[in-house]
Amino acid sequence: MTQELVDLRKSILEGRYADALAIVDELEGMSRQAILRNIQSFLLRLLIHLIKNQVEQRLTNSWANSIRSSIREIKKLNLQDNKTSYYVKPDEWEAMLEDEFEEAIYLASEEVMEGNYSPSQLAAIANKKQIITDALKLLVLTYNYSPKELSTVINEILSQLPGGKDWIDRI
């Protein structure tokens, strides 16, 4: 990015405004891609913990905190600087979750039931459709609730997951 800024400065100083605008467009694209990569990493973390929850039929404080913080971070990242539009629209999440699901299975297989399942075994056990549905329920909250309200509403949804009733009684 440093070279792009040098080129931008040079283009402006030399009056090559079309070149400068092309560099600005390139920088905007790079910024958008970086934000989307960050969002994808939080989606991956979200899916891993939803897989663990579903297969182990329990919810730990650590998993709940990871799910909650993933959703909160996605909310922050997804809102564009203009505060009125989003990088990822509500109807785009499912495709992104589908893209990350296989990697989430691989990573979760190291942790679920102390690593006793191979990725293919875990993929056969996990109900992909339900996990994606649960993730979508959580992601849609990011459009409808303020950051202050979000944790409480997420906890309500977490309490409906396997082991959620026991978990909510402990907190």
Concise summary:
By secondary structure, the protein is an all-alpha fold. The chain contains eight helices and no strands. Helices cover 75% and strands 0% of the residues.
Can you describe this structure?
With 171 residues, the chain is mainly alpha-helical. The protein has one domain. Helix content is 75%, strand content 0%. It is built from 8 helices and no strands. This is DUF29 domain-containing protein.
- Oligomeric state as shown: single chain
Structural class, from helix and strand content? mainly alpha
Q: Please state the CA-atom Rg, rounded to the nearest Å.
A: 20 Å
Could you say how many structural domains there are in total?
1
Number of helices: 8
The coarse silhouette is: elongated
Give the H and E element order.
Answer: HHHHHHHH
What is the average per-residue confidence, as pLDDT, rounded to a whole number? 91
Distance between the termini: 45 Å
Task: Please give the largest β-sheet.
Answer: none
* Portion in helices: over 70%
Strand elements, count: 0
Poorly predicted runs of 5 or more residues: none
